[in-house]
Design goal:
The structure is a homodimer. Chain A is α+β, with helices and mostly antiparallel strands and about 220 residues long. In chain A, about 40% of the residues lie in helices and about 25% in strands. In chain A, the strands form 3 sheets. A 5-stranded antiparallel β-sheet of chain A has the order 1-2-9-4-7. In chain A, strands 3-8-5-6 form a 4-stranded antiparallel β-sheet. A 3-stranded antiparallel β-sheet of chain A has the order 10-12-11. The first copy, chain A, binds a DNA duplex (30 and 30 nucleotides) through helix 6.
Chain lengths: ~220, ~220
DNA sequence: CGGTTCGTTGAGATCGGTCAACTCAAGTGG
DNA sequence: CCACTTGAGTTGACCGATCTCAACGAACCG
């Protein structure tokens, strides 16, 4: 099921040997990394595999997931263009990563980044900050999971709206099943909650994958 | 309600100026930090306060928590002797921290640690690793929250048993309410689940705060 | 000995899950 | 162009796990 395509080096535009100034770290991965494409539903890495690379989404959407012993699936996070993923505590991936839609990423060898970070304090700090952001996001995820279905869905929509910088119109790249597995609900509950929110005119659902936010403050109140 | 007591410097046993070798980092905080005691239920820091210090538990137990808009409380984590806490992404605490029982901690100024880490790659890495461990723990917490009450309680007991290195006999430092707010359940459900597990002889509950694990493999199977 | 806090237990209500039927849109091939 | 298939999403009826509300029991403490 691995449908990777078109591996190619991305060359750095920074002149060789020139000092790296802090504001350039944001682009570090792109400069050092190799580009790669993944087809819809293809695996980028698997749970338990050695964490050899660090990834940054160029376009498309990635989900990380874990299959539990009883077959249920939990989605850890969704990553969209600009997001870093694959940053792991140990040297094994604790989740697997799959492309939700046709997705382009750049990937860098962990060992290379680590070696650089050991010599370069600012890069080390950058990586730490990325991990901290991830931590903060998972903490927010925990707060979602203790709420009611309406609150979870409201929170999810607001999160997606913020992250895609969309102005009250969210184009969801993921299926109802993905949303359900992210929020710890079933597809039926997701569907029913969308129609509830639509009937109370907090949102509109012109097509299944497009959600329009009609009453943001009411949604925020739900999210509490 | 701040009942802090007995602030005192902990002197370093490392000769001034001697190089710090990697295996000593574990004790870095103790060496640099000031000791402090907190009474049961007293606040160590509050949500939204500037994150000035980094803490390490010497004895006792600490919980981090957050009060949601509707009054519900979510507990982020419990910290026991040896655990580091207060490590934050931004420069504000996103949770508050309270002592569950009479607790001793050592605390170090964040700014001091940060300054050192900027010059010392190994220390920087140590801090990053601590953040990664925290991340991993919160991810496990997410996995708990999507399970049934029995599974959550079983998982919680196994976690506590592992962390306290106790041999099938866990002395819980926290109340039923604390457990409930950690697992996203109610005290009634916690209580009922304990008695269920006791009736099926997976555990014994000689006193409310002491749990004996009688069938670890069955508990693990529940935890799946 | 009351008062207070913490934990347990019971009865009924409620939210979300399960199972099943149905709709809709997008292919696919004759 | 149309019949057929397929996958995703929606909706309804019913069920069960967990919550809510309330009473009760046990330990602790002035």
């Amino acid at each position: 099921m691995l449908t990777r395509t078109a591996t190619q080096k991305v060359s750095s535009s920074r002149p060789f040997g020139s000092p790296v100034v802090p504001h350039e770290y944001q682009g570090m991965i792109e400069m050092m990394g190799a580009a790669m494409s993944f087809a819809r539903n293809s695996e980028i890495y698997g749970e338990g595999e050695p964490a050899e690379y660090l990834y940054k989404v160029v376009s498309g959407t990635v989900r990380t997931s874990k299959i539990l012993a009883d077959g249920r699936r939990q989605i850890g996070a969704f990553y969209i263009a600009g997001d870093l993923f694959g940053l792991e505590a140990g040297d094994e991936h604790t989740f697997s990563a799959e492309a939700i839609s046709e997705t382009k990423v750049v990937m860098v060898k962990r060992s290379a980044i680590m070696a650089m970070a050991a010599r370069d304090g600012a890069l080390a700090r950058e990586l730490w900050t990325a991990t901290s952001r991830e931590l903060h996001h998972v903490q927010e995820h925990v707060l979602l999971l203790i709420k009611s279905a309406q609150e979870r869905v409201a929170g999810f929509l607001l999160e997606m709206a913020t992250r895609t910088r969309s102005n009250d119109c969210v184009e969801l790249p993921m299926s109802r099943q993905d949303i359900a597995d992210y929020l710890g609900l079933t597809i039926e509950t997701i569907s029913r909650t969308f129609t509830q929110l639509e009937h109370s005119t907090l949102i509109a659902v012109p097509t299944a994958r497009r959600i329009e936010i009609r009453n943001r403050s009411a949604l925020k109140r739900l999210n509490s």
